[in-house]
Design brief:
Shape: globular
Structural class: alpha/beta
Order of helices and strands: EEHEHEHHEH
Number of strands: 5
Strand content: 15-25%
């Protein structure tokens, strides 16, 4: 088992550890992510932005640019954050989940995902070296 550091607004952690930002994850997604992180080989910084009364959008946008991987659960995003969704999706390090097959998010990014299984490969990349 590795060291997983959870960071929430307004905190920031600067180190050379793989950093993952998860935006508005549903409970089911958090459970799946937890199971994946338990088996990770290297330490991980998990930046977590959830539904809250305080909107620290500056923190969120800074972490979108800073983190190695961003996972946006678009279907559970609150209206305030949703206003910034197109910008977040357009970032090359962002992977998004949605059940919306009508809105053409694919014009902004081809990084639509349907589950987190690919994340296991990212987290265990040091295992094969």
């Amino acid at each position: 088992m590795n060291e997983i550091t959870v960071i929430t607004p307004p905190d920031v952690l600067y180190n050379d550890v793989l950093s993952i930002l998860v935006i508005h994850p549903r409970d089911e997604l958090k459970s799946i992510l937890n199971n994946i992180l338990i088996n990770a080989v290297e330490p991980v910084n998990l930046f977590l932005y959830e539904l809250k009364a305080d909107h620290d959008i500056e923190w969120l946008l800074a972490q979108v640019k800073r983190c190695d991987v961003v996972v946006l659960d678009l279907d559970s995003t609150e209206p305030f954050t949703y206003e910034f969704a197109s910008y977040i999706i357009a970032q090359p390090n962002t992977f998004y989940l949605t059940s919306d097959n009508i809105t053409p998010y694919n014009l902004l990014s081809k990084n639509r995902i349907y589950d987190l299984s690919w994340l296991e490969t990212v987290l265990n990349r040091g295992n094969n070296e």
